[in-house]
Amino acid sequence: MASTNSQEVFIIGQTSEGRRFRPSDWAERLAGVMSQFRPDGDPPRLGGHLRYSPWCTPNNVAGVKCVIVHRDMQEAEPQAWDFVMNFARDNDLQIVDACLMPDAKPLS
Hints:
Pfam families: DUF3579. This protein has 108 residues and is α+β, with helices and mostly antiparallel strands. It is built from three helices and four strands, in the order βαββααβ.
């Protein structure tokens, strides 16, 4: 992957040929496996073992499941980063350098 200024990488649940990746809950499963990898100082919370890592979260973009992986994971947890990126490559999933935009406020 080329160097970029984006803070996140989106792993899109479509193959390079445009087919949807299965099973349908793949994004939640992958993010669940990665939930143990957290930034230092991430405060423990009640039910914290049931939270996704802020570095790897499932999402939905234009009706397609995806996992958003924050680049901070690459430096802090290189093996976890490699695992996620290799998962995407091994399954021929689309990988896009991008960034999350805050929700737009309605025009008044």
